[in-house]
Fold this sequence. Notes:
Distance between the termini of chain A: 28 Å
Mean pLDDT of chain A: 93
Shape of chain A: globular
CATH architecture of chain A: Roll
Oligomer: homodimer
Amino acid sequence: MTERTQITRLREYGSTDRAALDRLLADVRVGHFGLADDAGRPVVIPTAVAPDGDRVLAHGSTGSRWMRQLAAGAETCLAVTALDGLAVARTAFESSLHYRSAVLFGRCTALAGEDKAAALDVITEALLPGRTAEIRPANRRELQATLVLALPITEWSLKAFDGWTEDGDDDLAGPAWAGVVPMVTGYGSPRPAPDLRTGIEVPPSVTRLVRRDPGQAR
Amino acid sequence: MTERTQITRLREYGSTDRAALDRLLADVRVGHFGLADDAGRPVVIPTAVAPDGDRVLAHGSTGSRWMRQLAAGAETCLAVTALDGLAVARTAFESSLHYRSAVLFGRCTALAGEDKAAALDVITEALLPGRTAEIRPANRRELQATLVLALPITEWSLKAFDGWTEDGDDDLAGPAWAGVVPMVTGYGSPRPAPDLRTGIEVPPSVTRLVRRDPGQAR
């Protein structure tokens, strides 16, 4: 724990549980990288992220200046956030969200060679499990056009709330409802591309994804 | 448009359509504010956001140092991102996400008085439409403990992809599937708080929210 991972607000919701961080990273699809621009002003970049052991992977085009800045080892902060529900109190003040939120600090490294190709497969599998077995491997041109970044999971903090709201005695005795409304996210029916050749069925990766219980996609 | 709202990558997906920005802001629940810490290092803070005309509202505790830094007018970048589906190509390289993503640059102001109280109602209504009519107004203690921030919608950019992926001729002729898998988010059955007094029914605000078509909550 460092000065910047120390939670100062609502400390009781803070967690140093690495397994909980791993679950959050597995549940989210997108993270937000913070950067400073040339003038030192903050910039936030959303991008797909995927956990890979003790690092978080992201990828993007070599044509993206922000990806290049991250690849060059710029200091960054990655925020990953999952929204799990509305925590409805008897008052607006005590109402809240059910959420899980982590920030990771550090510098990315750009991957190369075998590690880069394997990391791209990890990203593909995170978004659509089983997909890599259904498609050809990336070719040299594609690998060259892609930056693959790894942020080490070293300096991080995690905050989560999944409890019940707490109203004061006056409000407890009042007429207002309180409870939780879960948010559920899942996948709808796949739509084939207009240029799909006839006879090509929806692949197992997509079928499995759509059949999964709701609440798994974010 | 400024230097930093100019889209350099995949320009064809950029948009200056203010109505599209407003739809995105109405669809998201959470945004990510970028800040620089005392040492100039990037920090990203997730928080609930709500559109309010030509500004975006956020709120938090006076006990949060990041909220105080935003309230003090620190330069910031707010990213709001909606994930609408998986765009599955015949190759990993051409695969993508259906997304809508905006960044807004500027400085927040801290609201006070009537404007502050009204803005809190806007935030409550954005999360749970109709709720303000079901609960008492915020009291003085609650208002004093809350920072309400407004970021003007002046310098922003928007990028979205909702199309079909484009594979090369060799891959088009191959055996792999391509299409889109929509992501759908909605609300599950409300769970009453354990300390809810008997006889208090689920209120209209929650009933309406849960009955809404999926794809509305993010």
